[in-house]
Amino acid sequence: MSELSGGDLPKGPERILGENAKLPEMERFFGDLYGRRDSIYLPDREIRAQLLYRGIDDLQSAVRQKAWLPIYEVMCARIVSRIFSIARGVDNVSLTEGLAKKYPLEGCAYCGQMPCVCQENRDPYQLSTPTTEQEQWSLRDWQEHLTKMYGEKNQQRGINYILLRLGSEYGELISLERVIPRYSIDEVKDKYSLELADTMAWTIAAASMLRVDLQKAVEKRYGNGCRACNQIPCVCPPHSFDQISKDDYGHILEASFHS
Ligand SMILES: [Zn+2]
Ligand SMILES: [Zn+2]
Question: Ligand 2 mean position to 184 CA, how many Å?
Answer without folding.
Answer: 35
